[in-house]
Amino acid sequence: MALMPVTEALSAVLAGAEPCPEEKVALDAAFHRVLARDVPALRTQPPQAMSAMDGYAVRAADASLPGTRLAVIGEVAAGRPFDQAIGAGQAVRIFTGGLVPEGADAVVIQEDTVADGGHITITEAARLGRHIRPAGIDFREGDVLLAGGIRLTDRDLSLAAGMNHPELPVRRRPKVALLATGDELVMPGTIPGPGQIVYSNGYALRALARHEGAEVVDLGIAADTLEATVRGIRRARDAGAEILVTTGGASVGDHDLVKRALEAEGVTMAFWKIAMRPGKPMMHGRLGAMRVIGLPGNPVSSYVCGFLFLVPLIRALSGRSAVRHVLETALLGRDVGANDVREDYLRARLERRGDGALIAIPVDHQDSSLLGNLAAARALVIRPPFAPKALTGSACDILRLPA
């Protein structure tokens, strides 16, 4: 099978990805969930005109001249309205958030008055509508302020509460099952024996998936046998996973059994091998409703492919309105050589120059096994196939990595 371009591979991964079903959750459980549909306000805010300051509600026509003396006939506090209309020559003491009484059309702040028993003297003229928040200045009943497809922020939850929603319709979290393969893998905290390595890929991938809002099922490490790999695939299917992610075993060696195991279980392969670096031996297929992403075993390749393909797929299944990564432009902080047939994703540090320019500095060693350089990177510099040598200061496309 020929190497598939990255853009075609991503389109294949996302093809037909429909959002998970809707469910309703309480506001406190809705943080970072994806809103399933538009949500209208159930009330008008504020429902009536309210004072924006502590002072006196007046008729602007009665308080247009400094030195005017008005009779104070009552008091308004938040939650305690005044049930009479204001007449000529009258004022009502009012506090921030208090409903403006009928007849009043301005608020004079208390600093611009002198109180004298049951009267006040105006020291600065009132202006029509000043210090009053009109009814509906924030929103009105029926206004759609939260659109379907957004990932709910903390501010969105406050807005939903103000709109009088105790719960929200959100998409069910996609379930991602992660299966590692390899006899050489041992868990962190273990002293590796000859030829063994400490398993690290899963920790980044699980965190990446959770960061995007997925539910994650860890299927552990499968031995390098066809039977063990098949059992892992079946466990993912039985768990109801929307996505199965495998790591390792995706290359062409005698012990790289993932592709054989997937095909033995009836997975229809969409592609195997991508024209990218790192991550050439990545594969994708489907087993019924379950989508499979087979990632390389090298930790940098595994993470970069997970970032480029798994993240957009999770977003699509979550019902996000924005699915694909957003490119930014930066300036190269060092020379990079000409590229070959594969699209390059160079790990890079980011710096902000004194004039505000964003500088992307590719790390010195781009080997796909180097976790230290991956952890230090804040972005990927994208080098198209056959790109010529690029000099320091030239423009480049980047993708920011999660913070």
TrEMBL record:
Entry's Gene Ontology cellular component terms: cytosol
E.C. number: 2.10.1.1
Keywords in alphabetical order: Magnesium, Metal-binding, Molybdenum, Molybdenum cofactor biosynthesis, Transferase
Enzyme class: transferase
Segments forming a coiled coil: none
Family from the record: Belongs to the MoeA family.
Protein's recorded name: Molybdopterin molybdenumtransferase
Lineage, top ranks: Bacteria, Pseudomonadati, Pseudomonadota, Alphaproteobacteria, Hyphomicrobiales
